[in-house]
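Lab notebook, page 48
Experiment: co-folding of the full assembly
Goal: obtain a model of how the components sit together before planning crosslinking
Operator: M.T.
Materials (sequences as entered):
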Amino acid sequence: MSVLRTLLASLLILAAGIAVLAATTDGFRAFTSETARRIDVREHPRVLPPVPLQTAQGRIIDFPALRGRWLLVDFIYTRCMTFCSVQGTEFGQLQRRLARPIEAGRVVLVSVSFDPSRDGVAQLAAYQQRSGDRGTGWLAVRPTNPSDLDTLMRVFGVTAIRDGLGGYVHNAAIAVVDPHGRLVAITDWDAPREAEHYVLRGQVQ
Amino acid sequence: MVLQMLVQIPLLALAGWWLAPLLTRRIVDTFSTWNRSGISGILLASLVAVVWMLPRALDAALETSWVALAKFTSVPLLVGMPLAISWPRAGFVVRGVWLVEAIAMAFRLGWLYTVSPARLCSNYLLGDQRQTGKVMLAIGVAACLLLAWKLVWGHNRIERVR
Amino acid sequence: MASLTMYPEDERLSGGNRAAFNLYIVTAVILFVLMMLVGLTMRMTQARWLDVPPDLFYELLSMHGAGMVGTMSLATTAVMWFFLRKYVHLHLWAFLANYVLFLLGALCIIVSIFVYGYGALWTFLYPLPVHGVGMWTADSSALFMLGYLLIGVGSLLFYLDAAAAIIKVHGNLGRALGLQWLFGGKIDPDHPKAVVASTMVIIANSLGILAGAVVLVMSLVNIFYPQVVLNALVAKNLIYWFGHMYINATIYMGVIAIYELLPRYTGKPYPISRPFLWSWAVSTVFVVVVFPHHLLMDFAQPRWLAIMGQIVSWGAGFPVFLVTAYGALTNIYRSNIRWTMPSRLMILSMFGWAAGIVPAILDGTIRINSVMHNTQWVPGHFHFYILLGVLAMALSLMFHEIGSRAHAAPDSRADRLGFPVYLIGGLIFVFGFLDGGRVSVPRRMAEHLQAWTFSDRIGSIGAILVVLAMLYFAIRITVGLLKPPSPSWAPEPVPGPIPEPVPSPLVSPAPSPGVVGVGTTNAAG
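Observation: model returned without errors.
Model output:
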């Protein structure tokens, strides 16, 4: 009798266990929070919050003001000495490759600093300059208070941890925002062609 | 990362193990007909442990408070306790299968963590991840040697609680 | 010491044990014939006598490799079980669980190959399973690996049960191996060789299965999550560690039959000795560390591993030669050995094993390996000691068992024809490979150049003879095992106590219980 009961109990436990695992991994697709973030954004686009952002020129804008265009957003900190410093030059190259759509007002690049206490207006301007900014179509911005920063990082799913060398390690990526102001995709930071694709095709894959 | 994965979580499980005697005899006996040779209990503990091995579960436990609470309750209650009441009932073969699988898991995860070029957890550095991998490989080797030593040269009583 | 009684009572198979043993053996012999036919098809394709398309050839090669190793393990597990159960209490459920899991695993493997086209060979060498170039999909490889995992779990269950049983009797595995007698002390003459051999296999093969469990799951992870890239050399080391131990374990399980049965046929005891214990203790270590001889041509391999592989390959020959082969020869010498099928097969197996490891040792030498690696010398050497060594050991038990049903060792005219056909066919077949290696014919090639086909054709002819002999053996053994024991079968008379004197009619003694007269047969007989 106990053999059958144990078999039944084991099968139930196994079924429940597999169900829980399936639920926690979005159907065995996402074992890491990064993959989970990307799947969630694709399946449930997120409306961006109207958080005030200060540009490198000192003006205050917000995401709703940028509607009507595709946005390619990345999160940076200007003091980065390691590989994420390449993010700047990458955006510079992206700005060059997307010159026509930028000119036509179809796309804007936005770099948001997640270290606003150390990245002031001057630092943002210097960052853009050394990354080869051509002057139009790329905004470097900073949130103006810590709770706004938290909101932004939560909505975009950004995690930044100290790297022990005075800087940060973060899940760098290029976030794609559609003309309705919704975050619709997250692509690899070192594969900008993927992000370009959204803009040039004009639709979500 | 080593501290979280390989010290904190095992300690939580151990806490559950030590709390197991608090369960009354009646509760344990009710379970025992559904837990022949400790199989159901060990299966439950193993599955819950797998959930807490997922990188995103570890991340969520650090970022979200209800997940952290879930970790601090489920690991002692659903991993440590079931193991504590099931292990004495488990025969040599059940224990052997579980130990071999656990050691194999340590090697697999250790291998994965040492070679993965991407950070599996957003809350830990790549260097932490590599180090955790190496520690897991070392744990696997140590467990293997310990087990082999015990079986080849140790005193072994093949008895269990009925 | 192993009993000299030809068919001792404690070996008798009845009920569940008999059914299980029959399942194992009948399945094994059927699979052997089928796998041999697969092999023959390949040899004839290489000989250009058949025209099999290359992708099918690699499916056949994958089936043959996995199928032969698995079936050999099945058959020799039955050998180990048959004898070990006399000395320790093995559970039937473990023996049957291994069988069921083996069948499930075999089903996965067969489906992955013949339905989904898997052709990455029995070695599933990373990353070949995910590069099918249209011949097979990654999913088919996943199914194949699942098959291996199931078979591995089955073996593990059997070994764990055996380990528990052995430890219950002997306290720990070291005492079961007789390590306490290595440097002195009086060896218990009744310490069963079957226990020593079984313990060695349990230790070594459990480690091999662990290695397999790691690399199989990691390969599966790579199939479903290609961004997880494995170090190919680490994977190859683990794969060959797993595979090498698994096939070697079959030899070490099979040889239990020699230790147990040979003395019965020679009539001379075959006692345990210190050299015997040393040989098995050393072999336990050697078989675990010898696997690098499969990676001698991987120049990225750490040098010390390659050197260890060569040295241990040479060293591993000594226990075999000096103890088992020499020991068997001394047992036969000046004995009244009765030449029947079991004894013939046993002596053949000693030759097959001892002679067969010579080309193996040669190939395990780095300088020679750099020329011979990837030639047909390699299948030449392992077919030698598997076909004429291990398989002969397993067959000897099978013939012995059918003899116990009829209470007479099998030696019919057909048997006496089948044996030389098997032996000669086997030698021709094996030398076909070895000669191919001599002229550097590459191995694992579906299409052969005309210049290579001479040794392929010799090999094919030998293979045909082997298949014919094996087909006959399979039928003979199956029929023999399924026959019920003859009702008039009586165990050999056991001398009873001296009979009580006939009571004088003047005295009427109370009948004392338990008086046994001479010649009473066991009622259960």
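Interpretation: The CA atoms of residues 24 and 78 of chain C lie 7 Å apart.
Next step: discuss with group before ordering constructs.
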